[in-house]
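A quick aside before the break. I want you to see a complete sequence-to-structure record at least once, exactly as it would be stored in a machine-readable document. Don't worry about memorizing anything.
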Amino acid sequence: MNNKISSRHLERRAVVYLRQSTPTQVEFNRESTERQYALADRALTLGWDKSQISVLDSDLGKSGQTTTGREDFHRLMAAVG
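That is the input. The structure line, written in tokens, reads:
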């Protein structure tokens, strides 16, 4: 476990929010998407239990110009807000 991460941190959920702005970015920047998914694995190595890690990826390929239609963005804001 990382010495900067306390049990207080590990009691909270770890949320990984994935997003790329366009379907073309999702298709051609696969390495970026893979790195974003790898953040969930990183949370595991830092000590979070798998049941405490949420991956929100339904907004992949949706523009950030508006929050309309970005359901995972709304879930994330509800979780942290």
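Two observations worth writing down. The mean pLDDT is 91. The radius of gyration is 14 Å. We'll return to this after the break.
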